[in-house]
Amino acid sequence: MDFRNIALVFHIVSLFILAGGVIGSVIMELTLWKVVTTQPRSAGLLSKAFSRFPMFQTAGGLLMLISGIFLLGSTHWYYWGQSWLTVKLVLYVFLAVHPNLTVKPAGKRLDKLLQIASATKNLELNPLLTEQELIMEMKSIRNRFRIFNIIQISIIVIIFIITIYKPHLF
Ligand code: HEM
């Protein structure tokens, strides 16, 4: 196996890790929201497990970047400057930055809400938020997570297609 193939193997493995992380977090999210809306006080534990998934995405993303640089090196930087690669790299940076701007703050807020929800036995007696307010806010966070997941998955698919076809975009 030559150097290029080794880099390609790592590149594809990291795609699996990345995609696995995304699919896992979609499944966890759907489960979490079911629990949040039916028994909010039990959702805390699930939320902790949920918070592990971004680690997979970070690990997969880093391996992707390193193996991608090796792939570029293996072709003596032939692709460097081609429009498909520029678009791919911009999308890749967006993929990495996007969670910090959207779901990370929303995740922190969700953790706080779940703490509030589990702090009192009876949500109606909660001095900080009524049950109605709590559920409304959780629903708005859920929508953010949904939109986020759709955007992340679409970008990964677009990057995939761009890499296969390598179109001259500009
Ligand atoms: C989410 C991010 C990424 C995804 C989904 C992705 C996907 C892929 C796939 C599926 C291939 C195999 C294509 C083929 O063999 O025809 C590939 C190849 C490649 N990728 Fe990535 N990649 C990503 C990030 C990166 C990054 C960050 C770089 C550069 C630093 C990069 C550089 C390359 C190069 C140079 C190739 C070889 C292209 C060829 O010779 O056909 N990729 N990528």
Précis, in short:
The protein is mostly helical.
Structure keywords:
mainly alpha; 6 helices; 0% strand; binds protoporphyrin IX containing FE
Question: Could you please describe the fold and organization of this structure?
Answer:
The protein has about 170 residues and is mainly α. The protein has one domain (about 5-165). It is about 80% helix and about 0% strand. It is built from 6 helices and no strands. It has helices spanning about 5-40, 45-50, 55-75, 85-100, 105-120, 130-165. The longest helix is centred in the N-terminal third of the chain and has 36 residues, at about 5-40. The chain is elongated. The two termini are about 35 Å apart. The mean pLDDT is about 85. The site of protoporphyrin IX containing FE has 18 residues, from helix 1, helix 3, helix 4 and helix 6.
Task: Give the count of helical stretches.
Answer: 6
Helicity range of the residues? over 70%
Structural category is mainly alpha
Q: Which word captures the global form?
A: elongated
Distance between the termini: 35 Å
Biggest sheet record:
none
Ligands? protoporphyrin IX containing FE
Calculate Rg over CA atoms. 20 Å
Average pLDDT level: 85
Poorly predicted ranges: none
Tally of separate domains: 1
Total E-strand runs: 0
What is the percentage of strand-forming residues? under 5%
Can you write the helix and strand succession as a string? HHHHHH
